[in-house]
Write a structure and sequence with these properties.
Blueprint (H helix, E strand, L loop, with lengths): L1 H9 L1 H28 L2 E6 L14 E6 L19 E2 L16 E2 L16 E7 L15 E10 L3 H5 L7 E17 L18 E7 H11 L7 E6 L12 E2 L2 H9 L7
């Protein structure tokens, strides 16, 4: 019996037939697998309501539906986790019943006006010019807290200097504000510095929000050209605390001095 089987398998015709049968079986199995993958529906998220541009996508806005894979074209998002709590792109309206596409769903930081989502009502946005050096080698991030120091030179007139005024040309330096939350760090073209880690962007502005009277005070301090004034951001560890400190003015003397050397004190 063993010899008969051996002779049977050694027969060239037999080997050819078995090879053909095996090839047909593989093709059949592969074909059926492709057919099943094309027609067996998969679950994908869709919009239960129309979503306007720049809106946060909440769980109540998202449903799931069964769709044959062959009907999915383009970069369709297949996982709810890639949609919920993200935002519709600024140039996108997602219609009710539509599937979600990758270009239409973005992180908050990728929205051009994302900073308007983060500051309290009644506050005013402030844009502080910075560079790589003043941000400590690009180490100040959105969500960090900073203190703001004021440096000014007490420049006196030639007559005051001649009279021997001891304060002539002395530098004033002190902390003006503390616990300022950074909302955005942007480059000179207004693009978020940290939105794309594949690109190296140079910081040009820190954006944060202040009560209006603080805003006016800081603006006046930045305009004191005759005193060669400058505002200096200093990062703190407030963002690491469970309850960050309150935003407040830390030097009444600096506040009074700024208001004294300017025409209008905002009050």
């Amino acid at each position: 019996m063993g010899n008969g089987l051996k002779k049977f398998l050694q027969n060239k015709n037999t080997v050819t037939v078995l090879g053909v049968v095996a090839a047909v079986a593989v093709l059949y199995i592969s074909y059926n697998a492709r057919v099943r993958s094309a027609i067996n529906p998969i679950s994908v998220p869709y919009a239960k309501e129309t979503i306007s541009p720049g809106v946060q996508i909440t769980q109540s806005m998202v449903g799931t539906t069964e769709v044959p894979p062959s009907m999915i074209k383009g970069e369709v998002i297949r996982n709810q986790g890639e949609v919920i709590d993200k935002y519709s792109n600024a140039d996108t309206v997602i219609p009710a019943g539509s599937l979600f596409y990758k270009r239409n769903v973005v992180e908050k930081e990728q929205l051009p006006a994302n900073i308007i989502l983060d500051y309290p009502k009644g506050y005013v946005l402030y844009n502080m010019p910075v560079n790589t050096e003043s941000t400590y080698g690009n180490s100040i991030y959105p969500g960090n807290y900073i203190d703001i120091y004021l440096k000014a030179v007490n420049k006196l007139s030639d007559q005051q200097i001649a009279s021997g005024d001891a304060n002539a040309n002395k530098i004033m330096l002190g902390k003006l504000l503390e616990n300022v939350k950074v909302l955005a760090v942007k480059d000179s073209s207004g693009q978020p510095v940290f939105s794309n880690l594949d690109e190296t962007r140079t910081p040009a502005m820190l954006v944060f929000a202040l009560p209006e009277d603080y805003y006016i005070l800081l603006k006046k301090a930045s305009y004191l050209r005759t005193f060669d004034s400058s505002l200096i951001p200093v990062p703190t560890n407030e963002s690491l605390k469970d309850n960050p400190g309150n935003l407040e003015i830390t030097s009444t003397d600096l506040k009074n001095w700024i208001n004294t050397v300017t025409v209008w004190n905002g009050e």
